[in-house]
Amino acid sequence: MLKTKLKKRDLKQKRRRIFNPKEHEDRKLKKVKISEDLMELREKYGEKLEKYEEPKKNQVLWDFVLKEMVRK
Fold it and tell me: For the whole prediction, is pTM greater than 0.90?
């Protein structure tokens, strides 16, 4: 029984991820780069678009039916 407990505990310890300072620094740099790219995109494309008049919608059968129902 003691051996099985030790084996399970050893397996759990092997699964733990060890802190890697280089990976941590890489993740921080990647996060900073993404936020800078996002700010650049917001500056470039975040402005409001000019308003254009929408084209007229063609009438379909349902529009004619609704007009007839309103008339009566």
Answer: no
Matching residue, tokens 């975040």 = 46
Cα Rg of the chain, angstroms:
32
Reported as type and span, the H/E element at residue 20 is none
Alpha helices in 1-72 (DSSP H): 2-15, 21-45, 61-71
Structure tokens, 24 = 């941590």
Q: Is 55 helix (H, G, I), strand (E, B) or coil?
A: coil
The residue with tokens 């008339």 is: 71
Q: How far is CA 8 from CA 12, 17, 58, 71, in A?
A: 6, 17, 72, 81
- Give the pLDDT band of residue 13 (cuts 50, 70, 90): low
